[in-house]
Model the fold of this input.
Amino acid sequence: MQLDLKLDNIICQFWDISVLEQHARDELQNPRPQKILPNRTIYLSRNDFGNPEESGGTSAPTITDFSSAVREPPEDQLYTQNIQPDGYTAPEVALVAGWTYSADIWNFGVMLWDLIVKNGLFDAHSSTHNPYTPEIHMAKIIALLGQPPEELLQNGQKTPDFFHADGNN
Done:
């Protein structure tokens, strides 16, 4: 099965609910920044729950939200639909070159980087000043890892969107 691995889809259960109660009190006393839009309010989350050993501990991480998950394709078939969030998009997904479990491995690696470094590996957070584009994302991948393999470029339906005919970007 192909998953949709990202931090939004990983949860942990708290053994000591007072940790959450303390965060609720903190929010009442010192509210986090928020952005008020015409039809909703977006709150900056409180996601630093400290050392699990000091805060009652948590359960093992659990993968949730299987709505984008798909079964492993037959051996001679690859998927081509985009199943990854912008900052996690693997080169084979961006190029529409077909993917299998490799997309999950890519997601897992990028997700680990996010957890350890606490900063997006490819800095794909969009804003009005710096909007996300697939071209910038692919350029950041190439800057870090080098040119994609020739076979991947040849199989990519969107390769011409990213590269010139001579293979340069």
Strands lie at 10-11, 34-36, 41-43, 62-63. The first strand starts at residue 10 and ends at 11. The helical segments are 18-29, 91-94, 102-117, 134-145, 150-155, 159-162.
